[in-house]
Amino acid sequence: MASSLTCAGVVWAFLSFLCAAASCVGFFMPYWLLGSQLEKSVSFGTFRRCSYPVRDESRQMTVMVEQCGRYASFQAIPSAEWRICTVVTGLGCGLLLLVALTALMGCCVSELISRTVGRVAGSIQFLGG
């Protein structure tokens, strides 16, 4: 297999992929903030939450739902700041994955990545990070 990358480029490609994968896993996991509420362990991220309070109208009290899940809709995310964070982090993860996968393809395909494409990809990675 021919490659359009130098040794440093190959290392960059694999590190880019590992960092993009770690960013995406962090984005999808609901463990950004950990704490306790009603004597239960709770956690949530930008669009997922675990062990959250719900009002039980039949018993007229608040109970804890001990399961993980996404918010029902984008508007159900608690605040505008968390909604913005969800969009920005999701776009960043998408850009990081795009660059990482392109760099990995450059390891297998000759003349795919030139010096200019590498610089643009690095700039996109900086924005994505």
TrEMBL record:
InterPro entries: LHFPL
Source species, domain of life: Eukaryota
Keywords assigned: Membrane, Signal, Transmembrane, Transmembrane helix
Pfam families: L_HMGIC_fpl
Major localization listed first in the record, in broad terms: membrane
Subcellular location: Membrane
Signal peptide start-end: 1-21
One Gene Ontology cellular component: membrane
Topology with respect to the bilayer: Multi-pass membrane protein
Transmembrane segments: 87-109
PANTHER family listed in its UniProt record: LHFPL TETRASPAN SUBFAMILY MEMBER 6 PROTEIN, LIPOMA HMGIC FUSION PARTNER-LIKE PROTEIN
Protein name in UniProt: LHPL6 protein
